UniProtKB/TrEMBL annotation:
Residues 6-51 form the FAD-binding domain. InterPro entries: FAD-bd, FAD/NAD-bd_sf, Geranylgeranyl_reductase. It comes from the Bacteria. This is Dehydrogenase (Flavoprotein). Pfam families: FAD_binding_3. It comes from Blastococcus aggregatus.
């Protein structure tokens, strides 16, 4: 083992949740180290990057990091016949240039004083220390608090004996620049359990980039997720006239959909983002929850650090916040029960009625986001910068 460096807070994982939490803590004057096993934050991206209106209203993302606004959602039954088109009078979604966003966020973190250490894996925890393995070999870092921002299969959650995600979807997509084609930017969703069991297959085409993906319960893809994506890609809607390149970027990963975990803190640390299960169980959107929960985490940690009272971390409680997910957990259970194309197709006559369309609009164009946690001394920050 080499030297024993120290930090007050060690954040594991430089996804959106970890970057945001680390920066907020450093801006409050705390010593923070942020590690990620990736050597380059523009690689191994695990998200489509769709930001919903509520996030865009409440947070200021770096200039030039967002694609054109999307106001149209098209819902397709299996077979793609007679889709339901929903148009919103407002801008509903924008797709982030995630590589640019991660780089900007890492730069902002470093400028705020965070020690950003890439190519370094968290491997375990000892008494008041964390074990890391980086280019120089194994190191032990003395730390007062550990923040698990290390994704859906969080090692930190395990080591802190906190709750862990048990219900997971897996998703994969291909991304390519859009050349040709016409029509407004649109989000195409296909409800077909034979290609996306328990969730959706999607094409997001904002006129600049297209994302073609599938997600579902891993053990329910009839011939595996890769084969499902191949089949979907061959017939994906929303790409007429668009040139399909031979080379595409590939993204993918697990998506926790069981709702926010209950036990997400202990006196030694806490979880944020996917590690805390902070993803909408229905839409599988996790970017908005990353930002909101990290703000709450930073506020609670700040108070604990200032007062020297570790017990204050108990205020970071998943049980209270989870109540705001109840409806979405129920709808997820409903979606999980759609096991055959025939059942999915049967929902469409209802979806075509005025009341069916109204329900779909409420889900897709509603103002709901991750429940805003009440943090100590928190006042609403209008359009807080990220970060
Ligand atoms: C295919 C797909 C598409 C999605 N699309 C959307 C979308 O369009 N909109 C939306 O809102 N949500 C979407 N989601 C969900 C959303 O992307 C996630 O909820 C969000 O990105 C989670 O961010 P995070 O920072 O918690 O975790 P992550 O972004 O997963 O970051 C975790 C980080 O921890 C690092 N790490 C893990 N273990 C270790 C370790 N032991 N040591 C060091 N580093 C470690 C990883 O390298 C990674 O950088 C999608 C998810 C998937 C899988």
């Amino acid at each position: 083992m080499s030297s024993v460096p120290e930090t007050v807070v060690l954040v594991v994982g430089a996804g959106l949740a970890g970057l945001h939490a680390a920066t907020l803590l450093a801006r409050r004057g705390h010593e923070v180290m942020l590690v990620d096993r990736r050597t380059d934050l523009t690689t191994a991206i695990r998200t489509t990057g769709i930001f919903v209106r509520k996030t865009l209203d409440d947070f200021r993302l770096p200039d030039g990091s967002l694609g054109p606004p999307i106001r149209r959602v098209v819902l397709y039954p299996p077979g793609l016949a007679r889709p339901v088109t929903l148009d919103s009078p407002r801008d509903e979604y924008r797709v982030g240039d995630m590589a640019a966003l991660y780089l900007a966020a890492a730069r902002a973190a470093a400028e705020s004083g965070v020690r950003v250490v890439l190519g370094t894996r968290y491997t375990g925890r000892g008494l008041s220390s964390a074990m890391l393995t980086g280019p120089g070999g194994p190191t032990s870092v003395r730390t007062r608090f550990l923040v698990g921002a290390d994704g859906a299969r969080s090692r930190v959650a395990r080591d802190l004996a906190l709750d862990r995600n048990r219900q997971l979807l897996v998703g994969a997509e291909e991304v390519f620049p859009v050349v040709g084609g016409a029509g407004p930017p649109a989000f195409h969703c296909v409800l077909d359990p034979s290609i996306a069991p328990g969730y959706l297959a999607w094409v997001v085409n904002d006129g600049r980039h297209a994302h073609v993906g599938v997600a579902g319960y891993a053990d329910r893809f009839p011939d595996g997720m890769v084969a499902a994506l191949r089949r979907f890609r061959a017939a994906a809607p929303g790409l007429s006239g668009v040139e399909r390149p031979d080379e595409v970027d590939r993204r993918g990963g697990p998506i926790p959909v069981g709702g926010l975990l209950r036990r997400i803190s202990c006196p030694d640390g806490l979880l944020v983002g996917d590690a805390a299960g902070a993803v909408s169980p229905l839409t599988a959107g996790g970017l908005d929850p990353c930002l909101r929960l990290s703000e709450h985490a930073a506020a609670v940690l700040d108070e604990a650090l200032r007062s020297g009272d570790r017990a204050l971390l108990a205020r970071y409680d998943g049980v209270a916040l989870r109540a705001g997910f109840r409806g979405r957990v129920l709808l997820r259970r409903g979606l999980a029960r759609v096991r055959t194309p025939a059942v999915a197709a049967a929902a469409f006559p209802l979806l075509r009625t005025p009341s069916g369309r109204a329900v779909a609009r409420r889900i897709l164009f509603g103002d709901r986001s991750f429940p805003t946690p009440t943090s100590p001394g928190r006042t609403a920050t209008p359009r807080a910068a990220v970060p």
